[in-house]
């Protein structure tokens, strides 16, 4: 497995990303950044991979991080050895510690992702997950657009810098309290927790009965609100998450049989059929690409 490295240094407000542009690993690579008066940083990375590899991010300062994914998918392992994922039209919020995390990037993957770093001194008072929690939630195209507009602003005068700061905090007011969105206002918090649970646990299909019990609602309410929240039925949503994870495992070197067992399939043939139906190619072909 190939590797590349990304180092984040908050105090100097400097991003060392030259190794990410390695032509052996990336077909295209573009980076934009914004450093604000309050010490908050925004970094957008837009790239297409040439080969599958692990990207190591090293943090020399603790803080808080919001990740906005406009396009792409990857499996990540935090400095606490916890596994989490970023995926298109999703955001993550979590506390970062000094240390490193890894992202497993697929071959020929197109990724567009924005990282917002808050210094440890700017601890959010409300709406932030616990010390060791990683929270995933859906985001709208509007929020992604606002982040991109911030990155494209040219703030030269003091007034322009304060104006940019004001627009940044307006964006953060949405991202730090995601449950205030108009969509999720009409969804029971327990249903949102079920979605986040399925996002974090991708090994095996959870039954509707067990999920309804977990949410403390009847099965009809669970299915209706889950479909309204995600646009997918519960089984379809789980299978999509599981097959995305399976593809990453195979790219990382796992055999088709090992992968099928790990993600909860008893028969390799059934796994291969489901994989082909979703991606249009057989899982074994990834070992020859």
In short:
The chain is 36% helix and 29% strand. The chain is of the alpha+beta class and 289 residues long.
Care to describe what's here?
36% of the residues lie in helices and 29% in strands. The chain is an alpha+beta fold. A hairpin with a 4-residue loop joins strand 1 and strand 2. The chain is globular and about 65 Å long.
Write the layout of secondary structure elements.
Blueprint: E1 2-9, E2 14-16, E3 26-35, E4 41-49, E5 53-59, E6 63-71, E7 73-77, E8 83-87, E9 90-96, E10 99-105, E11 110-119, E12 134-138, H1 141-152, H2 158-175, H3 182-185, H4 189-200, H5 208-215, H6 219-230, H7 234-251, H8 256-262, H9 268-279
Parallel strand pairs: 1-5
Antiparallel strand pairs: 1-2, 3-4, 4-11, 5-10, 6-9, 6-11, 7-8, 7-10, 9-12
């Amino acid at each position: 497995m190939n590797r590349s490295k990304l180092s984040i240094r908050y105090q100097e407000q400097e991003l060392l990303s030259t190794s990410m542009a390695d032509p052996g690993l990336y077909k295209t690579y573009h980076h934009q950044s914004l450093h604000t008066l309050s010490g908050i940083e925004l970094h957008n990375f837009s790239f297409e991979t040439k080969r599958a590899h692990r990207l190591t991010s090293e943090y020399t300062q603790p803080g808080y991080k919001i990740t906005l994914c406009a396009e792409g998918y990857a499996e990540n392992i935090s400095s606490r050895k916890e596994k989490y994922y970023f995926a298109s039209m999703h955001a993550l919020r979590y506390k970062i510690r000094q240390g490193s995390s890894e992202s497993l990037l697929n071959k020929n993957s197109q990724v567009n992702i924005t990282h917002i770093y808050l210094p440890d001194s700017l601890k959010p008072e409300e709406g932030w997950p616990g010390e060791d929690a990683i929270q995933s939630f859906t985001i709208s195209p509007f929020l992604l657009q606002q982040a991109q507009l911030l990155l494209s602003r040219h703030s030269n005068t003091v007034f322009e810098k304060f104006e940019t700061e004001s627009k940044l905090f307006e964006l953060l007011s949405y991202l730090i309290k995601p449950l205030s969105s108009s969509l999720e206002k009409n969804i029971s918090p327990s249903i949102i927790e079920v979605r986040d649970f399925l996002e974090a646990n991708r090994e095996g299909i959870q039954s509707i009965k067990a999920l309804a019990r977990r949410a403390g609602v009847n099965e009809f309410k669970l299915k209706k609100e889950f479909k309204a929240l995600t646009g997918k039925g519960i089984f379809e949503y789980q299978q999509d998450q599981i097959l995305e994870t399976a593809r990453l495992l195979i790219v990382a070197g796992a055999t088709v049989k090992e992968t099928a067992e790990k993600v909860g399939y008893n028969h390799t043939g059934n796994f291969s059929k489901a994989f082909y139906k979703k991606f249009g190619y057989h899982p074994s072909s990834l070992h020859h690409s």
